[in-house]
Amino acid sequence: MSNTKKLYIETYGCQMNVSDSEIVGSIMKDIGYEQGNKAENADVIFINTCSIRDNAEQRVKKRLREIRILKKKNPNLTVGILGCMAERLKEKLMEEQEFVDLIVGPDAYRDLPKLIKTVETGRKAINVLLSEEETYAEIEPVRYGDNGISAYISIMRGCENWCTYCVVPFTRGKERSRSPITIVQEAQDLFNKGYKEVTLLGQNVNSYHWEEKEINFPKLLKMVAEVSPKLRVRFATSHPKDISDELIQAIASTWNICDYIHLPVQSGSTKMLKKMNRKYSREWYMERMIAIKKQIPDCGISTDIIAGFCTETEEDHQDTLSLMKWVEYDYAFMFKYSERPDTIAAKKFDDDIPEEVKSRRLQEIIKLQGELSLKRNQNDIGKTFEVLIEKVSKKSNLELAGRNSQNKMIVFPRKDYEPGDYVMVKVNTCTAATLIGEVVE
Ligand code: SAH
Ligand code: SF4
Ligand code: F3S
């Protein structure tokens, strides 16, 4: 190809953003851009941004200060801000970051070729229109960031749950599901290329539905699982309010749908959950957990927790700790509440928990989770799991690392196995983060 230019994309935020960067990579490839892995020698730099918490935006801003210096050195460089910050701040971001050439929201990536042309004529370009239909269904993502073994497939976009603290409904727009035919096709293509694991992505995958054929999420999961018994299927994220018996049954009854559910609880206090507009109670969550553990006894469970949301009392905080102990999470993502402009919480509630109280509560949550993770891992000692080998271990090239169905990382001696192989591994010991074992024939 003549005239190939180099594109460098840096991605912040969630897996949806990682997946979006792969779609952007594909759109840019069609107009002659190849992926580079360095900002320093790129013709175009895209920063795919996240707005979920203030510190996510601060990280991006810090990086933009460095990119600004690159642009000063090379005025021909094109710099674009994509993703959720682009959507949240729109023109304001252009004013604030005067060196940026282009601002593109999550539903406008198809417009990139046109926007790049505008920039080539010396003008600035912006498209932050949200769409009710865009799912990038037939765009084949450029897989550049993964290990060639497991990949993400975006199955829906947007979110309309309006949790009162959350910016996502503003930055990602209306919820919409992608055609199941294109999803299964993408999984099949990945499998043909040697991938062994796909993760179906959406903000709330269990509200997936495709009306024409009445396909709901459990049905979709099974369709993807049918691609091959050698293709593992995972998904993220599920919302506790609609984790159905049908979904639990689909996981329990299908071998290659992994026994792992990420089920963000946010708080253990019903009062807080109500204020967060999560649409479930502590009791509902516990009942769903019982249903999961009954049908999938060895299910891996992880969660998200927010410490210090508006009006959270010491008692509410204790409710979170006690629920964590009750569930015994394998893993948790834990955050301090960060007020986001324009959300219902920002408009209607006082961000009234002092910073030091938020920090202390978060530390207590992190400490407890450390103990629970260790306990859960110790519970696996002596057990044997099927492991999909993903990589050579970070610590030593004599060791391999992969995950079991429950999503736990297991490290074991290399022998003559390679990434992409399935092996049976017996767990001998562990840390809070990793299981350590050996292959058994
Ligand atoms: N759609 C997913 C989560 C998306 S955001 C779900 O509803 O489960 C990932 C996590 O970020 C959320 O689960 C929540 O724990 C956290 N989060 C979202 N908004 C936040 C805020 N304003 N402050 C702190 N954490 C927040
Ligand atoms: Fe945000 Fe709630 Fe939607 Fe998750 S479900 S993305 S927390 S609004
Ligand atoms: Fe961040 Fe947007 Fe994802 S706000 S968490 S990148 S949906």
Question: Could you explain how this protein is built, in words?
Answer:
By secondary structure, the chain is of the alpha/beta class. Among the domains are: 5-127, Methylthiotransferase, N-terminal domain (Rossmann fold); 294-379, Transcription Regulator spoIIAA, CATH 3.30.750; 384-439, Nucleic acid-binding proteins (OB fold (Dihydrolipoamide Acetyltransferase, E2P)). Helices cover 36% and strands 23% of the residues. The strands form 6 sheets. A 6-stranded parallel beta sheet has the order 2-1-3-4-5-6, sandwiched between helices. It has a 5-stranded mixed beta barrel with strand order 17-18-19-21-20. Strands 7-10-13 form a 3-stranded parallel beta sheet. The chain is globular and about 65 Å long. Residues 52-53, 165-166, 168, 203-204, 237, 239, 264, 266, 304, 306, 335, 337-338, 340 line the site of S-adenosyl-L-homocysteine.
Explain the layout of strands and helices.
Elements: E1 5-11, H1 15-30, E2 33-35, E3 44-49, H2 54-73, E4 78-82, H3 83-89, H4 91-96, E5 102-104, H5 112-120, E6 125-127, E7 150-154, E8 156-157, H6 168-172, E9 176-177, H7 180-192, E10 197-201, E11 209-210, E12 215-216, H8 217-225, E13 232-236, H9 245-253, E14 260-262, H10 270-275, H11 282-295, E15 300-307, H12 314-327, E16 331-336, H13 344-348, H14 355-378, E17 384-392, E18 399-403, E19 409-413, E20 422-430, E21 435-439
Parallel strand pairs: 1-2, 1-3, 3-4, 4-5, 5-6, 7-10, 10-13, 14-15, 15-16, 19-21
Antiparallel strand pairs: 8-9, 11-12, 17-18, 17-20, 18-19, 20-21
Helix pairs in contact: 8-9, 12-14
The structure holds S-adenosyl-L-homocysteine, iron/sulfur cluster and FE3-S4 cluster.
